[in-house]
Write a structure and sequence with these properties.
It catalyses: N(6)-[(R)-lipoyl]-L-lysyl-[protein] + 2-oxoglutarate + H(+) = N(6)-[(R)-S(8)-succinyldihydrolipoyl]-L-lysyl-[protein] + CO2. The protein is an alpha/beta fold. It is built from 31 helices and 27 strands. The chain has four domains: about 170 residues, no CATH class; about 325 residues, Thiamin diphosphate (ThDP)-binding fold, Pyr/PP domains (Rossmann fold); about 250 residues, Rossmann fold, CATH 3.40.50; about 140 residues, Rossmann fold, CATH 3.40.50. Strand 22, helix 28 and strand 23 form a beta-alpha-beta unit.
């Protein structure tokens, strides 16, 4: 027969066994079938909530793992023999107490006081009431275990105190959502930070004065602009002034946490306020923009609430560089741009975990919920090629969206921030009328990001005093809301009254803050001191070598033959014991022969030698895309995969990372399945790192359709609007191979339509040597312009498109390639065919078959900027040519035809006619039927060599 002590130690309610039982219960809550049947029956009984008379018992819905404290009786009073029924009663109530705690952690945000306008009553949430669990008033003053909470250092609290602490922590002006996070360490960290202060931050008098100062400046700027520049758009921050207090905390805390740079992206709301009151832009400069003055160094410029800015600000912890990204009206599209810029800065510093560079994204409520690029950017956060050590997201939630919308029409989720749960980011909702709570959650969010290197979201629930812009009358569609807004005294006034009531400041002192800021505005003086105007950080990039440079096509891109052979040997060397796939091994063997000059180079080898020569010369290379390592058409093989992975490191080897000692970095990244966010990221990277060849490759050329906003708003126009240069390179597989509408065209016509002011380069090279020189030229020339390369598909392995190694050791990129067939006699040429891309090889073979030796074929390799001089030199060779025909694969209304015809016309001589040979106009980029594709291909060849017909523009 067992002794009493033995019975105690074996009891499942005894303290020593509590951890075991707790683990069982957590497993039960996740998967009831994972625990033994005996324990499952026991826990089922504890989960039943006592029912009212005449009703069935209901099951308590647990909202997260609940830590049980089965050993309460043993810890309190020592063990005393009890019946199993009594044990179950005690344990059952303790479980229900734990359920209440879990419910507040999960659902407390829904009952929190978050709306400054108090437009809706708090919802009734039964799970937050003790009665839901069968606990009565008689239980409120009983003592229960509190060992898994952080409200007190004591192990026990009365239920009344527990409920009060829960409501103070989770249901006042802060609503925390974090129980969706799967990592228990993270959840406990947040619980400790919130519960240890009962959600009530404690600030010193000086800290409170600083908060009021920020609110005063935020409100003061808006009121000054409202009276001085009546009716002009500025996207006022009024109603959301606490945002400036939040950003001030971000800057100050960053300095203390050794953050050296903050890269910020935001849309319009509050942008001017951010520029003046956080980044330190001179108010006088802002006023000049309101008065219509412009920068004559920009060809186009942009409106004032799109502009970026950078400054160096002194903080108690040291100087911090602030950079506000330029942003168009597509709102959230700036998100990946900021992430790319931050990643480039981190890599320049060797900041592997993002401790020194902080990305901050400021969102609007409707845009955060509504725009897909938000989700795409969030999805990059924890990936190897795009992570930035966590981003701080701040939502200025004005509860109305953009113009006249209602939350019921702007999203299908409870909160505008719910999309952030996909990456398990904690979300802190906070009432914008409680600036101390706003600053507190900002501190918390900054500490969280520093601790866990993960995204975190602050949702400042505020309001918008004026319309979407200052010309709107929002009361037309939101009369009740704007009636309340009209009665609201303002966040600054309320907080000032609070500080006066606390004795922190006098009313006169609060009024003097307002008057002093007005004096600064009247004088146009800077409000942020000190801004370090002469400070230059160690890792700052000097763009001056690339500025004010005239366009040139020429560049010395040749590489000595001996160096090419050495590089070829390095990129075809595989470590001993590394098992390459047989198909890839053949590619490597062929490339070694190419490097030895024993066979012509194909496209992949020309590309590889360009990268190898660049990294060996100190230029880093970064190439990303959905199949970037292998290449969509398996032509690149920049990453070799060991077929017996357990034998070699992580199972891969990258030859281009091993071409020379002290070489520059080479990174090739298979991206997530995204175009818009990834291309935006690479654009942002390129604007922060001019000395890196940054390439984004579309899986197929038409995939770029999904990133059109990035092309329109940044790549094609960023320099004209903002003076922002970028050397970003786009590779878009293009060519009519009978693969249907979706995989034929990279939409050449769209890019050409955007070309002006030498804003970018649009190129369709046709040989391995051409791509080699083109990629090198992109870095060697002393300016940075976006480069769009329409890359081939069938030409990747077409032997006609190969190049001897010698062509890489001499010459340069040719914008126009003239006739290369020695059998064509210039004086006998009657017709000149001009084309771009793969169709050249179709024409070349057709001419041979037809023995049409009076036809010359010219290749336009660079479509923009168009090389008039080079074309003129080639056309001079054919004085007897009376017909010029542009030939293209694409339908007539697509491709280069409508763009190129006026360039050709300018180079024609008297009596010459200009014609077109190609597919007929089409609503679709290509036909879907292979037979019809072949029929059209045959027809365009017939037109090119047949009797002149169609368009006839006579010079």
């Amino acid at each position: 027969m067992s002794t009493e002590s033995e019975r105690q130690s074996s009891s499942y309610l005894f303290a020593g066994n509590a951890p075991y039982v707790e683990e069982l219960y957590e497993s039960y809550l996740d998967h009831p079938g994972s625990v033994p049947e005996k324990w499952r029956a026991y826990f089922d009984q504890l989960q039943l909530v006592p029912a009212a008379d005449g009703q069935e018992s209901t099951r308590d819905q647990a909202h997260a793992p609940i830590v049980l404290s089965f050993a309460q009786r043993a810890r309190e009073n020592g063990f005393a023999p009890r019946t199993q029924e009594a044990d179950l009663s005690v344990a059952g109530k303790q479980v229900h107490v734990q359920s209440i705690i879990a419910a507040y952690r999960s659902l407390g945000s829904r009952w929190a006081d978050l709306d400054p306008l108090q437009r809706q009553e708090r919802p009734r949430i039964p799970e937050l009431e003790p009665e839901f669990y069968g606990l009565t008033e008689a239980d409120m003053d009983k003592v229960y275990s509190a060992t898994n909470t952080y409200f007190t250092t004591a192990e026990h609290m009365t239920l009344r105190d527990i409920v009060k602490a829960l409501r103070d922590t989770y249901c006042r002006t802060i609503g925390a959502e974090f129980m969706h996070i799967s990592n228990p360490t993270v959840k406990r960290w947040i619980q400790q930070r919130l519960e240890s202060v009962n959600g009530a931050p404690s600030f010193s008098a000086d800290q409170k004065k600083r908060i009021l100062q920020q609110l005063t400046e935020a409100e003061g700027l808006e009121r000054f602009l409202h009276t001085k520049y009546v009716g002009q758009k500025r996207f006022s921050l009024e109603g959301g002034e606490s945002f400036i207090a939040s950003m001030d905390q971000v800057v100050v805390q960053s300095g203390s946490n050794e953050v050296q740079e903050i890269v910020i992206g935001m849309a319009h709301r509050g942008r001017l306020n951010m520029l003046v009151n956080i980044l330190g832009k001179m108010p006088a400069d802002l006023f000049a923009e309101f008065e219509g003055k412009y920068n004559d160094q920009l060809s186009d410029g942009d409106v004032k609430y799109h502009k970026g800015f950078s400054s160096d600000v002194s903080t108690p912890g040291g100087p911090v560089h602030l950079s506000l990204a330029f942003n168009p009206s597509h709102l959230e599209i700036v998100n990946p741009v900021v992430e790319g810029s931050a990643r480039a800065r981190q890599e320049r510093r060797g900041d592997a975990d993002g401790s020194e560079v902080l990305p901050v994204l400021v969102h609007g409520d409707a845009a955060f919920a509504g725009q897909g690029v938000v989700m795409e950017t969030l999805n990059l956060a924890q990936t190897r090629g795009y992570g930035t050590g966590g981003t701080l997201h701040i939502v200025i939630n004005n509860q109305i969206g953009f113009t006249t919308s209602d939350p019921r029409d702007t999203r299908s989720t409870l909160y505008c921030t719910d999309v952030a749960k996909m990456i398990e980011a904690p979300i802190f909702h906070v009432n914008g009328d409680d600036p101390e709570a706003v600053v507190f959650v900002t501190q918390l969010a900054m500490d969280f990001r520093r601790e866990f290197k993960h995204d975190v979201v602050i949702d400042i629930v505020c309001f918008r005093k004026l319309g979407h812009n200052e010309q709107d009358t929002p009361a037309i569609t939101q009369p009740l809301m704007y009636k309340r807004i009209g009665q609201h005294p303002g966040t600054r006034k309320r907080y000032a009254e609070k500080l006066v009531a606390q004795g922190v400041m006098t009313e006169e002192e609060t009024d003097e803050l307002v008057k002093e800021y007005r004096r600064l505005m009247d004088d146009g003086k800077r409000t942020i001191e000190p801004v370090l105007t002469d400070y230059k950080g160690k890792f700052a990039v000097d763009w001056t070598p690339f500025l004010n440079r005239k366009w040139t096509d020429a560049a010395d891109t040749a590489v000595p033959l001996a160096e090419l052979k050495r590089l070829g040997e390095r990129i075809t060397t595989v470590p001993e014991g590394f098992n390459v796939h047989p198909i890839v091994q053949k590619v490597i063997n062929d490339r070694r022969n190419m490097a030895l000059g024993e066979q012509n180079l194909d496209w992949g080898m020309g590309e590889h030698l360009a990268y190898a020569s660049l990294v060996a010369s100190g230029y880093p290379v970064r190439i990303t895309g959905q199949d970037a390592g292998r290449g969509t058409f398996t032509h690149r093989h920049a990453v070799l995969h060991d077929q017996k992975r357990e034998k070699w490191n992580d199972g891969f080897y990258i030859p281009l990372q091993n071409v020379a000692e002290n070489q520059a970095a080479f990174a090739v990244i298979d991206s997530v399945l995204s175009e818009e966010a990834v291309l935006g990221f690479e654009y942002g990277y390129s604007t922060a790192e001019p000395n890196t060849l940054v390439i984004w490759e579309a899986q197929f050329g038409d995939f770029v359709n999904g990133a059109q906003v990035v092309i329109d708003q940044f790549i094609s126009s960023g320099e004209a609007k903002w003076g922002r240069q970028s050397g970003l390179t786009l590779m878009l597989p293009h060519g009519y191979e009978g693969q249907g509408p979706e995989h034929s065209s990279g939409r050449i016509e769209r890019f050409l339509q955007m070309c002006a002011d030498n804003n970018m380069q649009v190129v369709q090279p046709t040989t391995a040597a051409q791509v080699f020189h083109l990629l090198r030229r992109q870095m060697i020339r002393p300016f940075r312009k976006p480069l769009v390369i329409f890359t081939p598909k069938s030409l990747l392995r077409n032997k006609d498109a190969g190049s001897p190694l010698s062509e890489l050791a001499e010459g340069q990129f040719k914008t126009i390639i003239g006739e290369t067939n020695a059998g064509i006699v210039d004086a006998k040429v009657k017709r000149v065919l001009l084309c771009s891309g793969k169709v050249y090889y179709d024409l070349m073979h057709a001419r041979t078959d037809r023995e049409a030796n009076d036809v010359a074929i010219l290749r336009v390799e660079q479509l923009y900027p168009f090389s008039h001089k080079a074309l003129a030199e080639e056309l001079k060779r054919y004085p007897n040519a009376t017909e010029l025909i542009w030939v293209q694969d694409e339908p007539q209304n697509q491709g280069p035809w409508f763009y190129v015809q006026h360039h050709l016309f300018e180079n024609m001589t008297a009596g010459q006619k200009l014609g077109y040979a190609g597919r007929p106009p089409s609503a679709s980029p290509a036909v879907g039927y292979l037979a019809k594709h072949q029929e059209q291909q045959k027809a365009l060849i017939e037109t090119a060599f047949g009797k002149f017909k169609g368009v006839a523009l006579t010079r």
